[in-house]
Amino acid sequence: MRSGPSRRALLVLLTAVVALLGAALAVASATALILPTHTPGARYSKVTQATISKTICVKGWTATVRPPAAYTNALKKAQLAEWHYADQNPSHYEEDHLISLEVGGAPRSKKNLWPEPHSESSKSDPMENVWHKEVCNGALTLRQAQKLELAHKRAHG
């Protein structure tokens, strides 16, 4: 007679462990998007309430400060690996600014860039445009818009 766990019990245990690891990785990849230690957000020093009429509220201004795709693509790949995302396929993400350029986010700061799943970017991009318009028409201050954006992205990814 053998003593110890049966093969069936070991298989069930192994299956449970694999399932738990998969769930843990999925949670880790979702929360990695918003951990302040990874992406606390960073403001662009050249954009202040006093300068919005010469910066973010000028049509086309963000194109003048947006980092090149070569920079953001390389950063995205590095972050996906460094932060142990379960899905490391770069084509599934947009390297996004936590504080968007439209409301004065730092263009190249690693503290302000993160791999945002396309499913989330399609939801947050329209909100960025709303906050931008509200800052430029005086309905929100720059800081209010930045705080709203941070809260939204931390809550929804």
3D structure, described in words:
This protein has 157 residues and is mainly alpha-helical. The chain has one domain (33-156). It has five helices and two strands; from the N terminus they run αααββαα. It has helices at residues 7-32, 61-65, 69-82, 118-136, 142-156; strands spanning 93-97, 113-117. Strands 1-2 form a two-stranded antiparallel ribbon.
**Main β-sheet, in a few words?**
2 strands, antiparallel
Number of strands: 2
Q: Roughly what is the average pLDDT, rounded to an integer? A: 85
Note poorly predicted spans.
22-32
Which series of helices and strands comes N to C? HHHEEHH
Broad structural category: mainly alpha
What is the CA-CA span between the terminal residues? 55 Å
Strand line-up of the largest beta sheet: 1-2
What are the defining features of this structure?
5 helices, mainly alpha, elongated, 157 residues, two-stranded antiparallel sheet
